[in-house]
Amino acid sequence: MSHIYHVRVYYEDTDMGGIVYHANYLRYIERARSDWVRKLGNDQNAMRDAGLVWVVRRIEADYLATAKFEDELVIETDVVSLSGARLTMSQLVRRGETEVFRATVTAVCMNAEGRPVRLPAEIRALM
After folding, report:
1. Which among 15, 43, 62, 78 is annotated as catalytic?
2. What are the pLDDT digits (tens) for 70-114?
3. Which of 1, 6, 93, 96 could pair with 101 in a Cys bridge, judged by C-beta atoms 3.0 to 4.6 Å apart?
4. Residue 59 to residue 124: CA distance in whole angstroms
5. How many domains does the chain have?
6. pLDDT at 82 (0 to 100)
7. Element at 49 (helix H, strand E)
8. Which family does it belong to (predicted)?
């Protein structure tokens, strides 16, 4: 099941050329992932209080087209795989029918000591 998140490009998101600065796509997809996790019912504050956090381990990204000030973008997030402590997602940013940015993101569940730990069953069930 895909999660859809909408974002509008603001002036502050653009570079001197008037296009979205490359690092801002990482911010957009992070917002989409956070929104997705929240809507699944995974309370990240409660998770942190229990000594667990999500950490991005890897991002593989492709910049496919430009987005500009005032563009409305749609970010689609899908689970690619879920195993032990690892969650891999595909994220696609579109402007209308045009694919602008695509990323594969791998996140790992870690404990307070910074070690990977198996995802709790209740979180796995949400995904």
Report:
1. 15
2. 999 999 999 999 998 999 999 999 999 999 999 999 999 999 899
3. 93
4. 21
5. 1
6. 92
7. helix 44-49
8. Belongs to the 4-hydroxybenzoyl-CoA thioesterase family.
